[in-house]
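Sample entry as discussed:
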Amino acid sequence: MCGVIGVYNSENSSYDIMLGLFATQNRGQESCGIAISDGDLIRDHKGMGLVKDVLTPSILKKIPGKIGIGHVRYPTRGVIDVENSQPHVLETLEGTVFSFVSNGDITNYPTIKKELEQQGVRLKTGNDGEIILRYIAFYHKEKKLSVIDSIKKMMKNVKGAFSSVLISRNEMWAFRDPYGVRPYSFGKIENGYAFASESKALDILRAKDIEEVKPGEIIHVSKKGIKRTQLDVLSLRNGRKNCAHCVFEPVYFSMPDSNQFRISVYEARKRMGKALASYDKDLEIDVVVSVPDSSNVQALGYSQARNIPFEIALIRNHYVGRTFIKPDQAGRDESVKQKFNPIKSRIKGKKIILVDDSIVRGTTMRKIAGMIRGAGAKEIHLRIASPAVMFPCFYGLDTSTRDELIANSMNCDELKEFLKVDSLKYIKQEDLSKAVKNDDDRFCFACFDGKYPIELVDVGF
């Protein structure tokens, strides 16, 4: 998770970055930050909380410039504090010379950290983004490599997922890991370019000619224009021919109005719902209900496929963030209580198909099912638009151990009893693969099948 934004040559870059971050707030709600260069100075501001609370108009007025980057954080590595928030900055006696944001996790973090420390580099945080920045800066400043060559060296030696933007006082470099795990797009704005984790942020900025930053690509933007450098990704993928896009992005994380990995998230989710409907041809149901908002489209796909009414029977309080990306379980439990309220008239006495995108830890769904049962549902048939999450993710999700994942401690029948639903079915992995148009094996399904595309060097798995 996390969301990154980069803007080059905008008359009001701080405002544009704020808009882009607001559009990608779904990707992280723990903290956010911004760094802007006016050609002489790079100024930054970051804080705990949501974009609207941290990047206020009064703050943005104090950060002028035409080049900038921004970040919303979902914590996976490093403690939850401002120091681990992004952007990271590199300061010298001359002031801040680089600032950097990234989305993704590094799987050989301890190895790279030891390598840098042996050469006298000291890290201030435990964050993946800082280690990438300091790696690039060390080989640029101390080993006298160009920034492009320093990024190339980093991409050959640092393993994992990263969709990143680096700025100096007058230049910008955007780059993406060779597997393309996390989404990353860019487009032209009026006088320059904008980069973002999701294409919807670029739509907000009225960007044109939107396309993806290619896996293993470095895009350098300067006063001379744009220069694209493509690395030999086949030599960097440990024998894997194709990309390893995170399939959880179209299932859950990304917004439905984004286009990424060469698919529409909205249309992919409708196909997931249609696949789930194909498992229930003889099941008598009165109404289809989603767990809003991330499973609304899957539920609509199910409804249309079986010609059963779709009702918004759970109302979500949009001032409460996503429960899965809350940093601790207590926060998740409290959010569930505040987040949903049932429409009893749409539920009472009904046989319900309840559609959700995934079951990770299970506690949230148990509370939701109990809420619906308490509203008078006659039957609850739970349908999940992803396979059972059996394995931890090391590429940017906060599921670091198998013990956290309820599918490892309960089989489907046991989980049905735990959740107190009448039936439970997951989408089959082959049907999910079809839904995301994975005809060229470009997606990662490791959280479902344990087949990790990027080598797990230091994760202790």
In short: The radius of gyration is 22 Å. Residues 112 and 398 are 21 Å apart (CA to CA).
